[in-house]
Amino acid sequence: MKMTTIKTVILGLCFGSSLVLANDNESQDKSTIQLADDWMNYLAHDDRQGRLTGSVENTDVQQWLIERFEDIGIEQVPGQDSYLQKFTAHNRKGEPLQAANVIGYIPCNCESERYFFVGAHYDHVGTNPKLEGDQIFNGADDDASGVVASLIFAKTLKQYDSLPFNVVIAAWDAEEMGLQGSKYFAQNPWIPLNKIESGFMFELVGVPLEDKLNSAWMTGDKYSTLYPTLKAELAKQGWELDPVLDPKMGLFFRSDNAPFAMLDASKDDIKKAFQNEKKAEVTGIPMHAISVWRGQGHYHQPNDDASIINIPNLVSLAESLGKAFHTLPADTAIEWLENGQFEFTRPE
């Protein structure tokens, strides 16, 4: 998850099992858990060298993701001849790096022309050779957990004949360098922005507290009707969806939902609105992030590796969200809500 320049955000904090799984078929549960475990161990393995944007290892992950998309049955976005949306990212020194989002599509087999976005970032921060001992930042929770959850979510949707919206599954690059991958897509969209109904990003969904199993939270819960909509449906799956962990941390602006929700807001506008200095007028799409992180200290640390991930809880969350999404009525509309900080309007 990206660190932001908003002064009120506490430096170093970020986003971030139930054995009762969403899938009723025991053999399928075991198969899905094993898949998720395998995927996690690939993404967070030392061989990936921390999945730094522009590295050979990160390019290898792109091809691996394409193979997983094809295995699951995630299609290429209509009108595109590749899953890869290539772009040039820049590191903190301003050096150009070859980067790529991995974008796929699940048709709703319905009459809707609307789209719902679900995704996570697959890049991380690489290595630090100055450290003694472990020098690899494996990024298992941040955000291999979100990538695995996105794949499980997509796998869950593929079992249904129809869905309320078309679905885009996105794996973003260069998030750790300032949300550059999702920003690039928002500025160069493969889907008309006015056809995107809503969506959420998985961000640090792999390490729940022991007393908070089957419990997640959403950023920007006061900003749109996505929060109450998913909260009600998730409750039917045995999951709690809480409000944002701490409103003062500005987490709504720190994940790959932000470039969609804040299409034309400047950093200064966001800062003033966030600090309740001046309400900002913003064009955006109701897009949020979902997490289970509640302050554990593995963020951007070498111990964020596969061994700390609660795979059964992660799978349960992704499958439960998939089932919740499937049960939404065909006429579901996600709307911006009145709030004290932003005056939201949708793109035309």
UniProtKB/TrEMBL annotation:
Gene3D superfamilies associated with the record: Zn peptidases
Domain of life, per lineage: Bacteria
Signal found in the keyword field: yes
Signal sequence residues: 1-22
Keywords for the protein's UniProt record, in alphabetical order: Signal
InterPro entries, per the entry: M28_fam (IPR045175), Peptidase_M28 (IPR007484)
Pfam families in alphabetical order: Peptidase_M28
UniProt entry tagged with the keyword Signal: yes
Peptidase M28 domain boundaries: 101-318
Protein name stated in the entry: M20/M25/M40 family metallo-hydrolase
